[in-house]
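We store chain and fold; example below:
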Amino acid sequence: MEKILDIIDAIAHEKGLQPEQVKEALKTAFIQTAKRVINNKFAFEATIDKETKTMLLNQTITVVANEDEKLQDPNIAPAYISISDARAYDNQVELEDQLQIEHKIEDYGRTAASSLHREIEYHIQKLVEDDIFNKYKSKIGVLVSGRVTRVDEKSSTYIEVDEIRAVLPMKNRIKGEFFKVGDHIKAVVRRVNMDKENGIQIELSRTSPKFLEELLSLEVPEIADGTVIIERCARIPGERAKIALISTHAQVDAVGATVGVKGVRINAVSQELIGENIDCIEFTSIPELFVSRTMSPAIISHVQIIKDAAGVNEKAIITLPADQKSKAIGKSGINIRLASMLTGLNIELVENNSKTNKETGEIKEAKDGVDALQALFS
């Protein structure tokens, strides 16, 4: 095949591949074709002559001793020749020398040419698929956007993202949202798979906490440039979320920067999430204080952290006034669930009985006073 280097450059440019990748793919295609049309037990080697820009296909035969066991194995014997047979052609050969026999695919007719064409197409397509797979594998957790092309009977939404079609399953969709063909939507890459039957499969998500983080990064410059860091994030999609923020700059308020003037930044993100309420909390490494903040809007009296046998924080016992318990739990338990998700701790609520203790103390004090007066006048 003439001017193979020009062909390699053209394919690499058209498919967006590296020339070196295409070169190796073409070598493999030549070798596989030779095995198919010449002899699949031969050992072939493909090289490129840079001066003539042609592909050289050589059958490689290794010289071994007359009694070598490799000569007896029918599966690998064609790749070896005994030294006595080799010296019949060249009396200068030695053991382990490699003899090269050149073959040209075009000498084997139209069938060989068609086979080579199919092999090249197959290996180039495989390169393209591998390139796309690796590209999106590195994008797991990253925000992408695209246009809806189809919604199937299971309500799975198919989205055209750049050069590939991704799927947003119904389970990864925020409750209450619906899409139609032509809509432009945002989501994060959740999973990337590839198999022989279905090729590359990209699953998107709008319910992942990472989706909220990516939207905030898009809306808040301080998060995008690393001045404010999202330390932790928990959400119940479409209902409520809590994010723990920390500032890397003393003059930047992490919560204020994220919320924005009059809540403009956080409201823009909430609107994308179908009205999901987002609580912004300042992160702290002090577990008791952090747990207290995550229970907002409830006012907490005391937090006790219980550790397991290994010394790892496992449970938080929260003492709070009785009138704050409903706020701590939240509607359908949503507040306490999010706090538990954000802190990674099991949370137990205990009502504060200080009022009762105070009343008991007053009664006891009055009784002691009466007893003292009786003793004085007796």
User: Anything to note?
Assistant: The longest helix spans residues 109-137. The chain has three domains: 4-136, 139-205, 285-378. The domain at 4-136 is CATH 3.30.1480 (N Utilization Substance Protein A; Chain:P; domain 4). The longest strand covers residues 184-195.
